[in-house]
Design brief:
Layout: H1 7-34, H2 39-47, H3 66-79, H4 81-101, H5 104-116, E1 121-124, E2 140-144, E3 147-158, E4 165-171, E5 181-187, E6 193-198, E7 209-220, E8 224-225, H6 231-267, E9 269-270, E10 273-274, H7 279-307, H8 313-338, H9 348-356, H10 366-378
Length: about 375
């Protein structure tokens, strides 16, 4: 087993790292403060192929492997976790299910728009009363002539108010339970589509999280993704890949916390010497670095197995669980290392602290990840 990036992956890592340092780092704090969607950054990212990382070249994408995709998300998230999650959702939760389950006409119509960044993608599964339990969703779709009429309310949608292409899940057969859920490719200019509340959040403030409301929304019959009743299967398989992306985001946040802690501890003087000379600080840094390295390899393993076409539910859950909890541990230690300064907005670790928590919640809470892992092992 090879535990080293290929030359191409190293090149991608270098390119994304340099881009993030030059284009994202200088504006990330301002975007967070203003809760401003990173439109200009995304436009620049699209020109470099970051928004079409996993989309095949025949549809205008970069056609890269999933390890390269995780590298992109990690390096971007080191500088701006908001842009990191937008990138993850766009690639793994929107582009991938169209690649996997879409018709050739759907692929030709939507993948080039996503790869070029002309349209940003969003994934609309969560509802006010259906989070971890997708089978409890109430949004419904009724076929009428050559269209589906969709009514319902989706919540906590990343890029919801900025997305042009949204994967929406709705019940088409109430009697069939989870087998009665279907998936649709929705465009934001379809009749009956409406953006609801824009949420103010603890962290990832530039990611644009909103409510989406469908009031007799008219969706062409040909925009059904897969077959009627395939929605639950599509959602679960898509979220497996999405969890790899969030795990990579968590690694990026954690790595930024480590980098900041190392730099600060070498500069901060107490009792006549840098605090990096104190064992208490050394042990915190050692713990962060060790867990981050383990997290990164869990992410790479899940991505590698996805590239091979293997089932990854357990591996993706392990990566997300461990990486997200590692990120949270890393930012707590980073704030502690920075002392009082770590609690101020003057230092990056304050934003990292706020951004890290959500990685333990979205795309499946840590508790859900433990259920997935245990179910896989005990079945």
């Amino acid at each position: 087993m090879r535990l080293e990036l290929t030359d191409q992956q190293k090149m991608i890592q270098k390119m994304v790292r340099e881009f993030a340092e030059k284009e994202i780092a200088p504006v990330a704090a301002e975007l967070d403060q203003k809760e401003e969607y990173p439109t200009k950054i995304l436009e620049k990212m699209s020109k470099l192929g970051f928004l079409g990382t996993i989309i095949p070249a025949e549809y205008g994408g970069a056609g890269l492997d999933n390890i390269s995709y995780t590298i992109v998300v990690e390096e971007i998230s080191k500088k701006c976790a908001s842009t990191g999650v937008i990138t993850s959702v766009h690639n793994s939760l929107v582009s991938w299910p169209i690649m996997k389950y879409g018709t050739e006409d759907q692929k030709k119509k939507y993948l080039p728009l996503l790869a070029s960044g002309k349209k940003i993608g969003a994934f609309a599964g969560t509802e006010p009363n259906a989070g971890s339990d997708l089978g409890a969703m109430q949004t419904n779709a009724v076929i009428k002539g050559n269209k589906y009429i969709i009514n319902g309310d989706k919540t906590f949608i990343t890029s919801g108010s900025n997305a042009g292409i949204i994967i929406v899940f709705a019940v088409t057969d109430k009697k069939a339970g989870s087998k009665g859920i279907s998936a649709f490719i929705v465009e934001n200019d379809m009749k009956g589509f409406k953006v609801g509340s824009i949420y103010e959040k603890l962290g990832i403030n530039a990611s644009g999280t909103s409510e989406l409301i469908f009031e007799n929304m008219e969706v062409p019959k040909e925009n059904l993704l897969g077959k009627e009743g395939d929605g639950f299967k599509i959602a679960l398989s898509t979220l497996d890949g999405g969890r790899i992306g969030i795990a990579a985001q968590a690694v990026g946040i954690g790595q930024a916390a480590l980098d900041e802690s190392i730099e600060y501890s070498k500069q901060r003087q107490q009792f006549g010497r840098p605090i990096a000379k104190f064992q208490a600080i050394q042990w915190m840094i050692a713990d962060i670095a060790t867990r981050l390295e383990a997290s990164r390899y869990l992410v790479y393993k899940a991505a590698y197995q996805k590239d091979k076409g293997e089932r990854i539910s357990k591996e993706a859950a392990m990566a997300k669980l461990f990486a997200s909890e590692t990120a949270m541990d890393a930012v707590i230690k980073a704030v502690q290392i920075h002392g009082g300064y770590g609690y101020t907005k003057e230092y990056l670790v304050e934003r990292l602290f706020r951004d890290a928590k959500i990685t333990e919640i979205y795309e499946g809470t840590s508790e859900v990840q433990r259920l997935v892992i245990s179910s896989s092992l005990l079945s």
